[in-house]
Amino acid sequence: MAREGILFGMGNPLLDITANCDEDFLKKYDLKTDNAILAEEKHKPLYQDMIDTYQHVEYTAGGATQNSMRVAQWLLGVPKIATFMGCIGKDKFGEILKQKATEIGVAVHYQYNDAEPTGTSAVLVTGQSRSLCANLAAANCFTKEHLDEKLHWELVEKAQFYYVSGFFLTVCPPAIQEVANHACSHNKMFMMNLSAPFLSQFFKEPLMAAMPYIDIIFGNETEAATFGKEQNLGEDDIKEIALKVIALPKENKARSRIVVFTQGPDPVLVATDGKVTEYPVIPLADKDIVDTNGAGDAFVGGFLSQLVQGKPIEDCVRCGNYAAHLIIQRSGCSFPEKPDFK
Fold first, then answer.
1. Burial class of residue 20 (count of CB atoms within 10 Å of its CB; 0-12, 13-18, 19+)
2. Which of 17-21, 92-96, 225-229 has the highest mean pLDDT?
3. Burial label, 41 (beta-carbon count in 10 A; 0-12, 13-18, 19+)
């Protein structure tokens, strides 16, 4: 049975603002479907514009790592198995985020910033596609000093499994390296996610600094292809890229790297020890898909919920697929009161 504090996550806590919109609205802000970007100056009016333009705007707790921690916590059902750190503002949105995370049982230890508001992410849904535009605000202000505080570092030491989304590479690489080093030197498991194509393109240095410490790396087919292209590993054959990623230099020789690439409706690819295994996803009719936002986060949450219990990889993938299948039939990264995963 998984114990309290066994899973530690670090990332950007964001409040998701979700609306169904049309292509013209995306074009207005130069946004693309099925993509994730950081807000630039031209995107600043976007959030209020969504609220003014669309009647049905939903607010949900978001941020990739926090979503995964919430899903894992929901599946495990025992309070405070997952610990999460990130930075928020001292405002109403921050209060909502904390409430949503703690009510499901996640132990949140936020850093608070006085000057910046809690970060927000516009989730623009067009049909079955979504476009994300994140205004990090306070989330961008996380510092390693928060991690180094005695109480907080004790939480790091207490954990056995560590997960950080790639989005955090834009915020605090020193904190990532500190946790990665701790995991490596104590033979614990450190995991990351490619998270979005722009990270492989524009944040190569911190990504590749972390790579030797990564025991399990997640990503989808688009992120995998971009990473492959940027690292000269090829971009057309996702299986080949996965095999090349497991062969990249690794600090902890005690365990082989595992690469997990999701491919939407196509099988999940898991590469380790020189071979790739395919795991089919749970079929779902197009008409039943409500919102693909959060599907990748949910997959990771499901995967982690079994991993921390010592279950085999096939069970981790099966639960990841279960969680993703469930979440895409709902709006945002939300879930029913109780899971029915068996």
1. middle
2. 225-229
3. exposed
